[in-house]
Amino acid sequence: MNAPHSLQPTLEFKRYSGVMDWLTTVDHKKIGMLYFWFCLTMGIVGGFLSGLIRVQLLTPGATLEAIQHARLTGEALRFNLFSENGHLFNQVMTMHASVMIFFVIIPAFAAFGNYLVPIMIGARDMAFPKMNALAFWLLIPAAILMFSSFLTVGGTAAAGWTSYPPLSTKFSAGPGQDMWVLGVHLAGLSSILGAINFICTVTNMRCPGMTWTRLPLFAWAAFITSLLQFTATPVLGAAVTMLLFDRNFGTTFLDPAKGGDPLLYQHIFWFYSHPAVYIMILPGFGAASHIFAAFSQKRVFGYLGMVLAIAGIGVIGYMVWAHHMFSVGMPTPLQVYFMYATFGIGIPTGIKVFSWLATMWGGRLIFPTAMKFMCGMLSLFVLGGIGGLILGLVPGDYSLHDTYFVVGHFHFTLVGGSVMLLFGMTYFWWPKMSGRMLNEKVGTLVFWLMFLGVFIAFFTMHISGMVGMARRIAVYHQHFAMLNHITTFGYLLAFLGSLIFFFQILLSYLKAPTAGDDPWQINDLQGGLEWATSSPPPVYNFAKVPPIPIVDQMPRH
Amino acid sequence: MVRSVILTLVVLLSGVAGGLIAADVPGAGSLPAAEPYADTTPKAIDGWVALFNPDVRARVRNAAGKEVPFKVESTFTAPASDLASEVVSSFWLSFWFFLPFLILPQVLLVYVIFKFKKRDDGRKPATFIHHNGLEIAWTLIPVLTLIVVGIPVYPLLVKMDGPPPQVDLAITVRASQFKFDYDYKRENIQVGLDLVGGYQEPMVLMKDRTVALAVTSNDVNHAWWIPAFGVKKDAIIGRFNQCWFTPTRVGTFKGQCAELCGRDHGRMFVSAVVVEPERFEVWKTLQRQRADVAKVWAAVLAANAASDAPLKLAVDKYLDKAKGDADEQRRRVFALKFWIASNFTAKRIAGVDSATELPEYQALHGKAGDQPDPTRKTGAEVKRGYLEQVISAGLAALPAAESAVAVRSTP
Fold this sequence. Notes:
The structure holds 2 protein chains of 2 kinds. Chain A is an all-alpha fold.
């Protein structure tokens, strides 16, 4: 590469190779790959944990009567993995959620963001490369803390990923809950540092000509998501810090006997965790626009509307947190406000869904695996989204809250939405990231396993909830047995799909990197800068300032 | 149409899953409404136990090898309160508004996939990238729809969250790991986890009488929830959350704690029995004698071959309290029979595999494994004498297996 002298790095520093290179790298692409492999591994671990949950729920355990009988007599229940002890089940359930949220979905979008955003905006790296590395490496001790707490006396946190006090304060003995809190602190810190980096990168590092109105939607989405992360995650830190202090240092933030209030935690927690659900999907929404447009052989429909919709979801997402808490006993006017605010989320989301459809409309559609995943995501996410609106209706929510309807709803959005998006993004950008094409036949198999598995497992959960099955229970009435069998079947399909996906990515390294700069042949129309560089891109991405190949995404009148 | 399809699906799946077995309350239907205390035949007492303690009854059957699972009824499959019915109609009304937004994207997606699939027809892809009219339409139409959806919900919400129209029963629900205690404020009756049986007692309610609940917790967060009533309230320490509803059907309704509360969260059950108001009066009478009967029951448990005096004394003291009042006397005998039958039944299922492990059995016959001495005059006969004389109906009210456990003696 004959780069101009001025673009050569001026600082001389020791270069490592091999493992040491990966451990010390500050290159955004390598850090992106580290994130990617970390999330992929954690995804399999989290999927395995949900497998344990499914094993426990394979049979009702017993009828309610027999369960009670067993509890009184100390007899073991029929085929009950965790015997009569719901504590272990609670641990597994808590860790499944924590791993999937803090170590899979949130950092997985950081993986793609790290890899793609600097390239998409024509930058050579993130604004703060070392902080970027720090953000990733903080995840490792966070994960170690959380997982090693399984080995402590009393096990890991067992109060759910929401960790409501007083269950998580006075009623969780042992260090597990504290280690969970510290793990969340570290993961949160990683999230905040990453967010600062993205905000600074997108604000300052765009190459000449890359105006805000030309910014690719994925970069927009990563930027807005980072604003959410940067402002919301400290709030989570505050919430879990109150837990930590109440548990260890005698404070009484959450203890009503001494003037505190356990509800305080719920409000603060959801003030973070509702924006967090958008942190977990908005970058994918941005990426979906790229993929829909690419394989429709059209340009994105309604660029301005899409950007405003992402921003709108971000803003409204801050104002709806208490819809997780309708049953805690809030004043009626507040309930009405939160109901309407929740509906408000539906508006920008609807804009996005219809704009994607309009992007496809009149196109010349081809269906590589990535496009299949996007179509599947659209279908499942709409189901999940409407489920969310239904849950927003307060009187109905009194019946549906904390049932499997809620579980089905958020798995439709998080698995049917975020995970399907992540799979699709991988199929779309893996040739760019690794230089290796992924087999389309295997990809199609993965898609159908995932799509059917997710639909079967989580649609059934909606019905379980409506007929009265509470969530987070280790044993259930035999009335719900068949519904749970169907859910388990769906889980098996989806987990099989995920395993095949994992090994497909892993084994792709066996092939030589042969993908061209523009493997999907979309650069002429889409003009993404990532397709203007080699696959994988060189260390400094662009030897010279890349030409912005496309005029404004906004229509001119 | 869609609604009926979904309902059918829900009912079918739940029905197939559980087997539609209704709560089995044998004899309860034939219980006398007027002068209930007059009939203390075993059959009648048995019926009352089955009515007011259906869990116990069901578990006895379970122990006998016949499973009697209660059907779990939910708001959406079988509403059993005025609020639940309104919630269901409000839910489906809103669902109709949401349905187009659920169906339309799916239909459009399938249409687009097949219509605009790449074919060898030389067609060039369209180039439009915006359409103001469409974009305004798919912003404004959902906005208007969602505003409209909220309107009919509002009065129902105000009704549910507001004060009850009248209060016929005021109950404080106090949750703790892993049980619910119910305090009937006006009747001064406390029920909850029965210490003898170790089972969760049901909340007894009246059909068509409004009940107001004040839900609170002693420790961690819980939530009181019976799906069929359409009401769920979190139990939070330091707070009293109010809710109310009016049961509209007689029956046994099952639910459980709906907020993760620790180890046995999945086993923290709730039952409610809805009865006619006149039967509720019987239940109140029974509850008022409860403390007194407990002393007799203690004597029954302590009875041994050595002396029958404590048992005799306890029974005498119990009945002495109503001396001179024939009506009260009858009620007391009735209550004694009810509680003895109830406690024996509970005892039977309170975690013993075989009758020989029951303390009272051991007291009478020695520990398991000892060969009963046919020549020895056991305390059983003494005890049985009193039991038959005073509370024989209560004993006979037990199913055969329980009676055998209770007083197994040489014939």
